[in-house]
């Protein structure tokens, strides 16, 4: 009998939340077969069977939080099971596995589960709190994935059906608690409120932001750059990117310019080890790209960005963004960044004070691009302009260094021929 203990599947993870079991007690499983989904920092990880055998005991339920190192299930090796079966055959005993149930999982409403429901851990948690059976919900997200709005729509439809029971509908309604009447004050009716438990990805983001702000003295420097020459270069490269079926944006050019500048201003690509009181200068360039998803802000990482071409960066950025929004990123894809870019330009805004992605030393926020009146050679002209905001760790980086860093980025992007020449 082997005891399976919850491993540290993150970086220094202390606990994890059981999202769902993919097997039952008594199930025969193969080595490396997925057994359970566990919520880690911003991703959910599938833990697999260490051996081929039979699952004997499951000690926790979906929704339970478990400390690393705790036994979450036991599994009996295949050889051991076979020997016991042979012993029973010789003695005329029945060939049964204790605790064995039907192979098909049954939902709380008695419906057979034809397959795994596609939903992120955050949505699963919401469904449990709302007492919704996910197997009854139609997903409208990518590949049929269930998203938050699907749960809200399901509740609304269920409410209508409860009020009009004669309405024909084959959907099994969820078990719902009766609505509590809002308490009224003596003077006036209470204002409507909704309380949502802070948990899952949103809770992890909150903890990460608090740690960053409380540990790092933030300073933000704002500057602007002219984008006309870079836009002209991007337009010229469009025909080549289309031949490769790659959508080319401005972001890969920023990644390249930032990497060149990071190599010259190394403290921007560093971090502080507070325990050893050491500065860690990193001679590798893993660029995080902040990506907005339905479940919160995720930062997928482009590893060794200095070793990739503009087209390779464009393709990888697109793939990572898609995986982030579909909740398919692995832990490796969201860890290890040395510098982060937050591109809010498509949404809008002139400038911001972005929070550093701890334990990095800086983060660059890119804002909307628009035609503006500027002065060139003492004359007013219209140019395509963009603002950028650099937040940096003032323990590591002085204001002069921060300005020199952004000036270098401006030099490369406003004169993209220099960017091409200096690419490695």
TrEMBL record:
<keyword id="KW-0450">Lipoyl</keyword>
<dbReference type="GO" id="GO:0005737">
    <property type="term" value="C:cytoplasm"/>
</dbReference>
<feature type="domain" description="Lipoyl-binding">
    <location>
        <begin position="1"/>
        <end position="76"/>
    </location>
</feature>
<dbReference type="GO" id="GO:0016407">
    <property type="term" value="F:acetyltransferase activity"/>
</dbReference>
<dbReference type="InterPro" id="IPR036625">
    <property type="entry name" value="E3-bd_dom_sf"/>
</dbReference>
<dbReference type="GO" id="GO:0031405">
    <property type="term" value="F:lipoic acid binding"/>
</dbReference>
<dbReference type="InterPro" id="IPR003016">
    <property type="entry name" value="2-oxoA_DH_lipoyl-BS"/>
</dbReference>
<dbReference type="InterPro" id="IPR004167">
    <property type="entry name" value="PSBD"/>
</dbReference>
<dbReference type="Pfam" id="PF02817">
    <property type="entry name" value="E3_binding"/>
</dbReference>
<feature type="compositionally biased region" description="Basic and acidic residues">
    <location>
        <begin position="81"/>
        <end position="93"/>
    </location>
</feature>
<dbReference type="InterPro" id="IPR023213">
    <property type="entry name" value="CAT-like_dom_sf"/>
</dbReference>
<dbReference type="InterPro" id="IPR000089">
    <property type="entry name" value="Biotin_lipoyl"/>
</dbReference>
<dbReference type="Pfam" id="PF00198">
    <property type="entry name" value="2-oxoacid_dh"/>
</dbReference>
<dbReference type="Pfam" id="PF00364">
    <property type="entry name" value="Biotin_lipoyl"/>
</dbReference>
<dbReference type="InterPro" id="IPR050743">
    <property type="entry name" value="2-oxoacid_DH_E2_comp"/>
</dbReference>
<dbReference type="InterPro" id="IPR011053">
    <property type="entry name" value="Single_hybrid_motif"/>
</dbReference>
<keyword id="KW-0808">Transferase</keyword>
<keyword id="KW-0012">Acyltransferase</keyword>
<feature type="region of interest" description="Disordered">
    <location>
        <begin position="163"/>
        <end position="193"/>
    </location>
</feature>
<feature type="region of interest" description="Disordered">
    <location>
        <begin position="79"/>
        <end position="112"/>
    </location>
</feature>
<dbReference type="InterPro" id="IPR001078">
    <property type="entry name" value="2-oxoacid_DH_actylTfrase"/>
</dbReference>
<feature type="compositionally biased region" description="Basic and acidic residues">
    <location>
        <begin position="163"/>
        <end position="178"/>
    </location>
</feature>
<comment type="similarity">
    <text>Belongs to the 2-oxoacid dehydrogenase family.</text>
</comment>
<feature type="domain" description="Peripheral subunit-binding (PSBD)">
    <location>
        <begin position="118"/>
        <end position="155"/>
    </location>
</feature>
<protein>
    <recommendedName>
        <fullName>Dihydrolipoamide acetyltransferase component of pyruvate dehydrogenase complex</fullName>
        <ecNumber>2.3.1.-</ecNumber>
    </recommendedName>
</protein>
